[in-house]
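I am writing to request your help with a piece of structural work I have in hand. Thank you for your consideration; the sequence and its tokens are set out here:
=====
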Amino acid sequence: MIPISTLPLSDESKKRISEELQHLFKNSNIIVDIVSFSDNRLIVRAEQEVLKETQQIDKKNLEKIVRDVFSDKVPSTWKVTISAVDFNRSDIDSIDAFWVSYRMEDLGLKPKHLSTYTGIDKTDLNNLLNGKVEFTEWQRVAFYYFFKYRYLSRFKN
């Protein structure tokens, strides 16, 4: 990632962009990284960390919010590309029995609830949670989106 300080902008513009990006992170858990800059083309990646108390922003609005940060601070000749993502691949790859167990405990879920909600057989689920069997890719994705939905909707059993 490229630091804002290396962009060919005035010090005032760099300062305003930095302040607004810090404000976005503080208030909405939005992380913005400058991926590249060359030939008057700026590519920016935006992602919102999902925390229990954070309102989730969809990709379209996330892109608009980040575009507004840069709009009046970069020259009009620059092409600004915003890549808004609503998940991080490493989040899905890091899902294991501990990750699932922690979220189950945090949400007050028991294995029988998880089995009912996901359709995974209780025996298979217990083998996954006890580390006897590795998670498949589809199971990681299913658990990622299941818990993301549960945290966002905050519904009870």
